[in-house]
């Protein structure tokens, strides 16, 4: 992989990390409002909960697009050097981690599960970024 490709990959990983953090914050916020809504009959709170869930869905979609860009760049890697094999192995862990049923979005447990999965994805992206940066530094 050429250095230019590596720098583009580094940039896309960083963008994906930002998207993951945004989705994680949205899941946290949606979970808090959903919890309040659970114990309230206030219609305004229900409306707020719906808005938070919609916002979370948008942020999760943005995160998936950012992760897809990283995945496509990784798929474009050529050659089978040790770095490439290890990178693809790590990335496969990352993309297998994400499977969310949109229908279950309004389930409070699922919202907190999304928050936890975002943290796992972020940690994996950090490892991926570290590997690519070390490869560029060679």
Could you name the key traits of this structure?
83% helix, 138 residues, single chain, mainly alpha, 4 helices
Count of alpha and pi helical runs: 4
Helix and strand run:
HHHH
Helix content: over 70%
Radius of gyration: 18 Å
On the 0-100 scale, what is the average pLDDT?
79
User: How many runs of DSSP E, i.e. beta strands?
Assistant: 0
Main beta-sheet annotation: none
N-to-C CA distance: 12 Å
Low-confidence blocks of residues: 99-105
Can you put this structure into words, describing what you see?
The protein is mainly alpha-helical. Helices cover 83% and strands 0% of the residues. The protein has four helices and no strands. The protein has helices spanning 3-38, 43-75, 82-96, 108-137. The protein is elongated and about 60 Å long. Mean pLDDT is 79; it is low at 99-105.
Gist of the model:
This protein has 138 residues and is mainly α.
Q: What is the topological layout?
A:
Layout: H1 3-38, H2 43-75, H3 82-96, H4 108-137
